[in-house]
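pipeline: protein-struct stage 2 | run 1193 | L-iditol 2-dehydrogenase
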Amino acid sequence: MSDLSPAAVPAAPSFDRLRGHHALLTGVAGGIGLSVLAAYLREGACCSAADLGRQPSAGLQALLAQYPAQLHYLPTDVTRQDSIDALVVAARARFGAVTVLFNNAATFTAGPLLEQTREDYDRVFDVNVRGLFFVMQAVLRQMVADGVKGRVINMASQAGRRGEALVAHYCATKAAVISYTQSAALAMAPHGIRVNGIAPGVIDTPMWTQVDALFARHEGLALGEKKRQVGMAVPLGRMGDPADLDGAAVFLASEESRYITAQTLNVDGGNWMS
């Protein structure tokens, strides 16, 4: 049997597939966002990278040092319209018209349905739905004004394909992402702008420490047990690595996907079949 571990998979080569593009990415401090940012830079894109932190994360600092002419960082709160508007203006001022949006900023919550509060609901919907929609809207307005035949990639999740007892709010937000992706694709098709999504499965990111701890508390599991269980349940036999999303993210941003829109691509090791 072949070794399917992430370490056995060589780094994807660069083919300059995004040379001449300006990609704006949110949620880039670590995990999927940081990995896709590195992939876009390798493929030749100039990148405006946005995250909540006032200072860039260690991983992002390393990329800033490696790609000083291609990358700049913009602290952004996607729950505030003034912060979103400032992001789009600053990104355009630095690298010109945005041609690719990788809409990734998100947060997570879990808990028994009967114990969820309005504050729990507001927190996850503010980032995952309201934030994602208004970032997309602001970038799309700019693309239309600039006459850009751009590409938008919204990050959904396999959680948006089905409900889960302890993850009602998160599942609902990711289902909304899939729906907004379809609606935006239809609205933007006359402008030549393509809008697609990616639905990752269980990906071994820093957020999984929080997810695992929440399940440990609510399901009475030992720390690390939920992570072990979900990895074993994946048909390909392991949790995904953030780099497993790079290929799909580059493909949907490139001309290789020029006749694809309104789709949400599952990248989940076979967890969801559609």
